[in-house]
Predict the structure.
Amino acid sequence: MAKREVVDVAIIGSGPAGSVAGALLARRGRKVLCLEREVFPRFVIGESLLPRCNHLLAEAGLLEAVEARGYQVKPGAIFWRDGQPVRFAFAAGRPGTRPAAYQVPRGDFDQTLATRAAELGVDVRFQHQVTGVRFDDVAARLEATALVSGEALEVEAKFVLDCSGYGRVLPRLLGVDRPPTLGPRVAVFTHVEGDQRPTGPEAGDIWVCVHPNGSWIWIIPFSNGRTSVGVVGSPELIEASGATDERRLYWHLETDPTASKRLAGVRRVMEMKRLAGYSTAVEKLTGDRWALTGNAGTFLDPVFSSGVTLALESSSRAAVLVDRQLAGEEVDWGREYTAVVDRATAVFAAFVRGWYSGELLDVFFARNPPEGVKASITSVLAGYVLDTGNSLVRDPEQRLKTLHRSLARREARPG
Ligand SMILES: Cc1cc2nc3c(=O)[nH]c(=O)nc-3n(C[C@H](O)[C@H](O)[C@H](O)COP(=O)(O)OP(=O)(O)OC[C@H]3O[C@@H](n4cnc5c(N)ncnc54)[C@H](O)[C@@H]3O)c2cc1C
């Protein structure tokens, strides 16, 4: 016989999306239960945040706890191609863009968020795995197992937020998974020590290096002296580069003109990790009494470090709408949630497609781009993808194409 509990909102997963949604709802007086399968701290990838995250963490009452952890401040992003850099300093973004974000070891970061969310009133239960869901006229009913005792739990909730990330609990249970539109890619990564970091204001930047074979490498420095390094490429390119994942990663680091200098002689301090087929898509983001947020809904690609930002953007929005619905207001989930999340995702999707087609790199590396262009790009790279004052946000696909064409014409002019 399952133990029964009744709450206002049940949240699946205590990653960044779950903690932010939980904190927002608890601060509005809702009874929130967050079920998390793992025990924290646990490793998860997604270590380079964007400035927009700081806004969203502040709104949820979680930023102070994050600031107290002393994480590496990230003032910008540097992209390297053929040994040449182009830097986007967040401080040079459009008005309203925060000047920095953080580089975070996610085990510690996620634990910090979950701990603070619990202090704000969320009932966070670790080692509780959600296994089933049913909906009836009055409630959503989640089935879960307490992994230590083996005890079954049934949670009756007025609303369920799925923040289960790669667990993708509701998409699987409700059959709303859809094949992703982006091509299959593989990521191989680890943490190292001995990274010869730049000094000065750029020390905390993320580096993204385009490898001569078309793969790309990330270098993310942490304040604990460790550095996250990884390579992303097509399955064929990655497999062809070595016999083991360690060799595949090191081969890319050794043969890249930029990474080879900075990372010469680094020591691996964590096991090798690999993720493949991580892009996700769904038929719909909401239904009666449920919504998907963060990676449980959509995930594009790691190249612009957009995952946690989009997770916080969607979970914050969902939490506020759930609160309004529970207060008796009519909520138009299609217009107020799906359309907004889709818009935000579409901006990064256009950037990701432009990255892999090569057009975006031409834009990044254009000499003397017209005034305002760099600020517009910077604000997107900082995560401000709902700022409709930015032409790149209003019509990202078309605007990037136009920009690419006009910059190519300028580049072709002599002088
Ligand atoms: C190679 C790679 C590199 C990336 N780099 C970056 C980056 O630099 N910056 C960035 O912002 N993003 C990055 N991302 C994306 C980032 O990993 C995700 O977007 C982010 O973690 C999503 O947060 P979330 O809260 O939605 O889910 P998660 O962080 O995945 O959290 C979900 C939680 O739900 C729990 N859960 C799962 N199933 C169940 C269940 N059945 N019951 C209970 N709990 C459950 C999990 O244990 C987990 O704790 C990267 C992704 C990849 C693949």
About this structure: DSSP finds 14 helices and 20 strands in the chain. The mean pLDDT is 96. The chain has three domains: 3-43+108-179+280-331, 186-276, 348-412. The radius of gyration is 21 Å.
